[in-house]
Design brief:
heterodimer, A: mainly alpha, MetI-like fold, 0% strand, B: 366 residues, alpha+beta, OB fold (Dihydrolipoamide Acetyltransferase, E2P), 2 domains, six-stranded mixed β-sheet, five-stranded antiparallel β-sheet, 22 strands
Chain lengths: 242, 366
């Protein structure tokens, strides 16, 4: 029993989606986590709540609202169409946006608590030595939380790979564009092609297993490095509503 | 000049400091715990930002660091543009970088060219052998030496110290104190030094800001502040004065330095480590408890230093103890004696007496 070309397409698409989403999540999520770790702004609880929502909402709810946001008569979607010349609904870009929102808490929450554990005076000392904020981030924060960052990225990657509900709502099932592993699997089961479903399910299972294995291996090493900052002993994989 | 005008309210604590601080030598911010010393230092550093509506200002040699008044909006110069270095109790080295990279971190971010040299600093602070180590593998004293080296290598226009010795044991304290004494003379970088330790104050400070409960009590040169009988420092158990002066000669046979007090007077100071007459001025400390008063100069006494002085002030401390301020030419001494002695000897202000000095500590170069 081997993977069919369509299945391979779905696997590659899933990997691509997970990779692109993870990259975007790091770019958005790390600064956001740093801001949350430092700010005393009154809107902080509001932002934290918004970020945590995907943890408890059924993905279909997020998907539903995204679907509405992506409809061509929507302000956001029509501007997107104008700027990029493609529609968001039933497109890879749309999936990326959905995945980023869906997996944001998996990056922001562990990184926020990682950053909170770095003493404030460490960054102030760096500032006094002439480091501006961006410099502080790259020269102090990022290297000190390297382990947490790798773990958070792996978690976001794994979580994006397993996504179903959001894709179902906004992606449709277009091979090569929006048909990710979970959708292809669903298709196989619907059409009673259990053999193909087995292969695909096993592939996803194995990929997820190794992703998580990496995270927990890093976490363990972090724990054994007693004194170093940014250890990942806080890592918890939460139950998302799916 | 560091021009400070701070009027901050933090909860129920009020910090009011409006003063000018000289930007040469070592200025100590001294006071009991919770007097607002570190809070003041943090505001000067920019580590804590005062409330945007409060009237505060700080400028360093006419460079504006903080400003808010009724006419102007809030202005706060970012920390990284202030050219300061900050040394804390815990050294605060970057744990992911080796000692050498910690030092390079400072050098790479200098805002101005500087001739402060990496090798020179490593030699002075004896950290050459530590360069490849990670900070977590250093002792407390070693970490603090690296932190001081890093501060100097950033070529700052001001170094702020927040009780840098308080986390160290006695040996390490002594070593770091020694380094600090040497360094501030060599580099001419002003130090702003928070401490509540009188010993550190006497050894390092040229100038003192005295704080109590958030209020500035005095801002004076060290000599004045130690000998001012109206200030709390002269009333402490280990109160005393420091005297700075030139050395006339070194007596090799007895290992004694002859300190010139002017007006033909001198003090003999024992220095076991000296080989020759020091070229520079020296600083000594004389505790009030080591100075006694006689009406006539004892000729047969083991005490080497007996000098003619004039009583300029007498203040009763408590429990029958008194502090007497003595003038010798333009130098001051304090003597802690009992109120009973004052009465028995009939001591009054303006009287000429002799001060017998039992112990003198050589603190280092002035």
């Amino acid at each position: 029993m081997f993977l069919t070309p369509e299945d391979i397409t779905a696997i590659l698409l899933t990997l691509k989606l997970a990779a692109v989403s993870t990259a975007i999540l790091l770019v958005i999520g790390l600064p956001l986590a740093w801001w949350l770790a430092r700010t005393q702004n009154r809107i902080k609880p509001m932002i934290e709540t918004l970020i945590a929502l995907p943890l408890i909402l059924p993905p279909t709810v997020i998907g539903f609202y995204l679907l509405i946001a992506f409809s061509p008569d929507n302000w956001f979607a029509s501007h997107w169409q104008q700027w990029f010349g493609t529609s968001l609904a039933f497109s890879f870009s749309g999936l990326v946006i959905g995945s980023v929102i869906y997996s944001l808490p998996f990056v922001v929450q562990p990184m926020q608590s990682s950053y909170e554990r770095i003493p404030k005076i460490t960054l102030l000392t760096a500032a006094s030595l002439g480091a501006n904020k961006v410099d502080q981030f790259f020269s102090i924060l990022l290297p000190m939380t390297k382990r947490s960052t790798i773990a958070a990225a792996s978690l976001a990657f794994a979580h994006t790979m397993g996504e179903f509900g959001v894709v179902l709502m906004i992606g449709g099932n277009i091979p090569g564009e929006t048909q990710v592993i979970s959708m292809a699997l669903y298709d196989h089961v619907e059409s009673l092609a259990y053999d193909r479903a087995h292969v695909l399910a096993l592939t996803l299972l194995a990929m997820s297993f190794f992703c998580l294995l990496i995270i927990y291996a890093i976490d363990r090493r972090g724990k054994s490095h007693g004194k170093s900052h940014g250890k990942n002993s806080h890592l918890r994989i939460r139950h998302a509503g799916h | 000049m560091l021009d400070i005008n701070i009027n901050e309210t933090l909860g129920s604590f009020k910090l009011n400091v409006d003063t000018l601080i000289p930007t040469d030598g070592v200025t100590a911010i001294f006071g009991p715990s919770a007097s607002g010393k570190s809070t003041l230092l943090n505001i000067i550093a920019g580590f804590s930002v005062p409330h945007k509506t409060h009237m505060n200002s700080i400028s360093f040699n006419h460079q504006r660091w903080l400003k808010k008044n009724s006419a102007e909006p809030f202005y706060h110069l970012p920390i990284h543009q202030r050219r300061i270095a900050y040394v804390t109790q815990t050294a605060c080295l970057f744990s992911h970088l080796t000692v050498e990279k910690n030092l390079q971190y400072a050098i790479n971010r200098r805002l101005v060219a500087s001739d402060i040299n990496f090798n020179d600093i490593c030699t002075r602070l004896k950290i050459h052998t530590l360069l490849d180590k990670l900070p977590d593998n250093l002792s407390g004293g070693e970490q603090q030496r690296v932190a001081i080296a890093r501060a100097l290598l950033s070529s700052p226009q001001l170094i702020l110290f927040d009780e840098p010795l308080s986390a160290l044991d006695e040996n390490n304290r002594e070593e770091i104190l020694h380094h600090l004494e040497q360094l501030h003379q060599s580099f001419g970088i002003p130090f702003l030094y928070v401490t509540h330790n009188l010993e550190e104050l006497m050894r390092l400070a040229d100038h003192v800001l005295l704080l109590n409960n958030g209020q500035l009590i005095a801002n004076q040169p060290i000599g004045d502040i130690l000998s001012d009988l109206t200030l709390p420092l002269s009333q402490q158990q280990n109160s005393g004065v420091i005297i700075e002066g030139s050395v006339d000669l070194f007596d090799k046979q007895y290992q004694l330095l002859k300190l010139n007090l002017g007006n033909g007077q001198h003090l003999w100071i024992s220095d076991a480590n000296a080989n020759e007459k020091p070229a520079h001025n020296i600083r000594i400390r004389v505790y009030a408890k080591d100075v006694s008063i006689t009406l006539e100069a004892a000729t047969q006494s083991s005490i080497l230093n007996i000098i003619p002085v004039v009583i300029s002030e007498i203040s009763e401390v408590k429990n029958g103890q008194a502090i007497v301020k003595l003038n010798c030419d333009n130098h001051l001494l304090l003597s802690r004696i009992t109120a009973k002695s004052i009465q028995q000897l009939g001591l009054v202000v303006g009287q000429s007496v002799f001060a017998q000095i039992k112990g003198i500590a050589l603190l280092g170069a002035a």
